[in-house]
Design a protein that fits this description.
mainly alpha; Ferritin; about 0% strand; binds 3-hydroxybutanoyl-coenzyme A
Length: about 325
């Protein structure tokens, strides 16, 4: 064995010992190239999800039914932009620039959460997104607080605090609609019917069909499997639905003896169509992002000139 090979082996052993002992991997630590690539993919896709997720909700800012609900929605959407920022910053510590992440998104090489490719047809959809989509996101993100990469884990701690507020604002909308007129109750049920299955799909394919899971769990990037997280989400959300008189749209739903639920079949053809660019709003979401990015070019250029001036000033 060459000296170089021995050194590499030692580095790998140190990396594996850190993972084993729950010591976070930090940006300047040695890490296997596949671990770095896995994180670059997952964190940047997570960041894109936060930012693209602003679009379906942004659609309702001007039509919120009261000043209070408008203020809350604005604050929530602004939080999501902030989450994107923390996550891009965490992903950049792995040696890829923000511009590169955005290019991959625009070229269709990077994914974002499938759920944001569905339309928001009325105000009840804003309730369903907060309650279900943020509720599903937080179920995953709570476990990601313990992910092995330090900057990602720390970003998750902050994001989770804000997401739990988002989940409650969504549930409050649904609850108030269920206390309202028959029409409002019908709207809330219709929104649940349309958002339930896309929310379950957010957790990704079943564990047996998830090509990325084995390595992710071994490296402790993922702390719980797709199916386990989906079960957790279902078990906490169904009682919330029942409490306000909503019915989960799953005729095959079963209550197990231990009080947990078993769901019916998920339409995986629909899931793969959506993640491969053929959902109801994929093209619209991407085009909107590309246009906003192009329209914002002058802001980035101005900021770069200002930064350059500050750097030059610092040299004198
Ligand atoms: N939407 C889009 N793509 C998905 C997906 C989904 N719901 N679920 C899985 N996929 C993709 C994977 O990215 C992977 O594609 P790739 O290999 O081309 O990158 C492929 O399907 C196979 O799936 P795997 O289960 O093998 O992939 P992962 O192990 O990466 O698991 C994941 C998928 C659970 C989404 C995982 O990547 C993850 O935990 N990501 C971080 C959390 C995240 O991205 N959350 C976004 C939620 S939205 C949000 O937070 C905004 C909030 O404001 C609501």
């Amino acid at each position: 064995m060459t000296v170089q090979a021995v050194i590499e082996q030692e580095k790998l052993a140190q990396f594996e010992a850190k993972i084993e002992n729950e010591i976070k991997i930090e940006p300047n630590d040695w890490m296997p190239e596949d671990y770095r690539k896995h994180l670059i993919r997952q964190i940047s896709q997570h960041a894109h999800s936060e930012v693209i997720g602003m679009q379906p909700e942004g659609n309702w800012i001007t039509r919120a039914p009261s000043l209070r609900s408008k203020k809350i929605l604005l604050a929530k959407i602004q939080d999501e932009g902030g989450h994107g920022l923390y996550l891009y910053a965490a992903a950049e510590t792995l040696g890829v620039s923000r511009e590169q992440f955005i290019s991959w998104l625009h070229e269709g090489k990077a994914k974002y959460a499938s759920v944001f490719n569905y339309p928001t047809l009325n105000w009840a959809d804003i309730g369903a997104i907060g309650w279900l989509v943020d509720g599903a996101a937080i179920t995953n993100q709570v476990s990601l607080q313990r992910t092995s990469y330090g900057p990602y884990s720390r970003a998750m701690v902050r994001i989770c605090k804000e997401e739990s507020f988002h989940q409650r604002q969504g549930y409050e909308i649904m609850w108030r609609m269920m206390e309202g007129t028959k029409d409002q109750q019908r709207m809330a049920q219709d929104a649940l019917n349309r958002w339930w299955w896309p929310s379950l799909m957010m957790f990704g394919p079943h564990d047996t069909d998830s090509p990325r899971s084995e390595k992710a769990i071994q490296w402790k990037i993922k702390r719980e499997s797709n199916d386990r997280l989906r079960e957790k989400f279902i078990n906490k959300t169904i009682p919330q639905a029942e409490l306000i008189g909503l019915k989960v749209p799953d005729p095959e739903l079963r209550l197990n003896e231990d009080g947990t639920y078993q769901h019916g079949d998920i339409n995986w053809d629909e899931f793969y169509a959506v993640i491969n660019g053929n959902g109801p709003c994929n093209k619209q979401r991407l085009q909107h992002h590309i246009k906003a990015h192009q329209d914002g070019a002058w802001v980035r250029e101005t900021a770069a000139i200002h930064q350059q001036k500050m750097n030059n000033h610092g040299k004198h």
